[in-house]
Amino acid sequence: MGYSVGQVARFAGITVRTLHHYDEIGLLRPSERTAAGYRRYSEPDLDRLQQVLFYRELGFSLEEIAVILDEPGSDPVTHLRRQHELLRRRIGRLEAMAAAVQHAMEARKMGISLTPEERFEMFGDFDPAQFAEEAEERWGGTDAFEQTRRRTARYTRDDWRAITAEAGEVLQAFAAAFAEGAPADGERAMDAAERHRAHITRWFYDCTYEIHKGLGETYVADQRFAVNYERVAEGLSRWIRDAIHANAARHA
Amino acid sequence: MGYSVGQVARFAGITVRTLHHYDEIGLLRPSERTAAGYRRYSEPDLDRLQQVLFYRELGFSLEEIAVILDEPGSDPVTHLRRQHELLRRRIGRLEAMAAAVQHAMEARKMGISLTPEERFEMFGDFDPAQFAEEAEERWGGTDAFEQTRRRTARYTRDDWRAITAEAGEVLQAFAAAFAEGAPADGERAMDAAERHRAHITRWFYDCTYEIHKGLGETYVADQRFAVNYERVAEGLSRWIRDAIHANAARHA
DNA sequence: GTTGACCCTCACGTAACGAGAGGCCGCAGG
DNA sequence: CCTGCGGCCTCTCGTTACGTGAGGGTCAAC
């Protein structure tokens, strides 16, 4: 039973080589092989392939997809919900582009020429908008918020990649120390906290120790943040908050 | 005057390296260089860059983009119209995907499992829509049109790749024979014509010799087809028509 | 018992950049 | 005047996600 590479490739509209590749990198290993070494794909394998293709279509790298799909506690329904959300966003983006094109056509008819900034504004948006709205609700009007808005406005796609990568490293440092049982008021923990503060200061706003402590509290109190940390390890959010507090005390 | 690489990169949300790359491959050469060899981008350069980014966003390869932008007789308004159309299509596609996701969620709730074909139907569509509309205007209602619609509906991305590749080979055969001075009523020309007919029959509809002759006429009469052949070699469209006629006569 | 369609594993090629290395250019400040 | 520093230059090598054969087994069918 099960399907051969060729069959699967035909269903999914991809090449056999692509399936070989996904097998190679461990993204989608067929759950069985025949005695002759032929790949056999089961129904769950097809399910997974579909997920892979979906996220690929939306521009995720294969590595990112692997992370998403292997996230612990990610049931199918969660994925479907997330996919729907992603599609909505992407559609919104394209609609904005369509509007921009319309705008350009009208401008051209009237003989108006656009400034460089205007010309590219449709490509300019990116990640910031994602949490910018929510950020405004929480911190709108504050100094830090204004600073963040001003600075992030100039960031390129590349900057955002760097930022998320760096954020990942910082989280990694927290997680590693926590996993190895380091105390929250120890050197490792405090150093990681300091790195976290530096990251924010570098890319977003002047994160004082006072503000940092407030953030630490938020990470525990706000479900949306807490979940992200708890998913990595149980108790991590609280541990991070304590590390931040210890670090602030150290620098007081 | 003009803008430096860094400035342009910031406007457009791309990296300097990308601009270097586009310069290297000839996709976007800055219209000027300073005495020191610095790239200077003019307003028209920015216009072109914007087009490039637009088509890139929609998944075109840089080579395809070069072809699109350097097409003779492509004024800005044509591009804008085409872009709007492409966006509309893409949005439609995503909406279909969103619907499919919704469908999958409902199916899951009811505990129904999908067949492999159903599972991947959302990835099934592809190129056909591109020229399907125009085809409908010209040949709507005819037998060949219906047949084409039914058959192409089942094609996967892979099939389309194969089809375009094969079409390329056929054109190549025509062009080579023509370039070497083969007569339009000679064996080589007629064989190429026969190959062309077989290609259409294989992938689209039963192309009789009668229909084929009509197509030959179209290739000369319709600017949109003629341009494609004349771009390869001057006089090629007429030569192909003659080869098709000779081939039809041979098989009569 | 031999085709023909399909499968396997290397292994190298390609597109579209990313990431430096090593070295000019140009101007604000001492 | 020169010196630092950000920006620009040209290589060159690395990476992702496969494409494209080469060389060779497998298996159902005629």
UniProtKB/TrEMBL annotation, chains A, B:
Residues 1-71 form the HTH merR-type domain. InterPro entries: DNA-bd_dom_put_sf (IPR009061), MerR-type_HTH_dom (IPR000551), MerR_fam (IPR047057), TipA-like_antibiotic-bd (IPR036244), TipAS_dom (IPR012925). It comes from the Bacteria. The keyword Mitochondrion does not apply. It holds the Pfam family MerR_1. GO terms for molecular function: DNA binding; DNA-binding transcription factor activity. Keywords: Activator, DNA-binding, Transcription, Transcription regulation. This is MerR family transcriptional regulator. It comes from Microbispora hainanensis. The lineage of its organism: Bacteria, Bacillati, Actinomycetota, Actinomycetes, Streptosporangiales.
